Amino acid sequence: MTSVVVSRPAPSVVLELLKPITWFPPLGALGCGIGSSGVSPGQRWPTIIVGVLLAGPMVCGTSQAVNDWYDRHVDAINEPDRPIPSGRIPGRWGLYIAIVWTVLSLLIAPLLGNWGFVAAVVGLVLAWAYSAPPIRLKQNGWWGNAACGLCYEGLPWFTGAAVMSASAPDWRIVLIALLYSIGAHGIMTLNDFKSVEGDERMGIDSLPVLLGVDNAARFACLVMVVPQVAVVAMLLAWQQPIHAAAVGALVLVQLLLMVHFLKGPRERAPWYNGTGISCYVVGMLVSAFALAAMQAS
Known about the structure:
Radius of gyration: 20 Å
Shape: globular
Strand content: under 5%
Number of helices: 13
């Protein structure tokens, strides 16, 4: 029986490569930016739709394609069923998809105005710098996680606020977005626990490899908590006590969940992603509502 050689990937496999599930964090941050601007959607729905397309399927999708292409050797060890190492995306198709998606993103980005375009360019540059040599920021957990945190939280939040106001966002919006980006550094560390063996073999210095799993878990928790405490302090300083109390309560819930997580960080990282990170995201939404109220006052 003659085996069938795959010459080009099926559309469903291309969609799998672009990982739609990873689009939700930047889309959530984009929504926070839109809400925090205090500007009514009104006639700006076409711009919002373009922003959603760019933040999720395009820029985030590009980052996933770039990452999977340059990580194909590591994935062959850690996750051999992924589209590229499994052969379902053959040859150099993974690279071609990453390039095409980058170009399409750059063609769409000008529709968001100057600030939206700049944010998209920064996101695309970081997407390639994160995975592609010679920079390959992910080779070091400190720099790589910082780039991811910025791309997943700060840039989409900034973009949402900028496209709604058609100008640079209020400095308070930028500050809160930056704090949540810093906290996302810890979230990115949680994602590295599943690939410690492959990272060690391929020389990738993720934080679990550099610090050890237990120390990396403790550091991730610290990095997630401290920026949120700073957010609470900022909201109190800006006379938003109810929102500050809500974010503070969510931080306390996360601390309780972290106690359980730290008893077995490698096994419990997926569980914490579904519980503690949900509290983190709700805190972002509460902060966005607080900023919107401040813009209206």
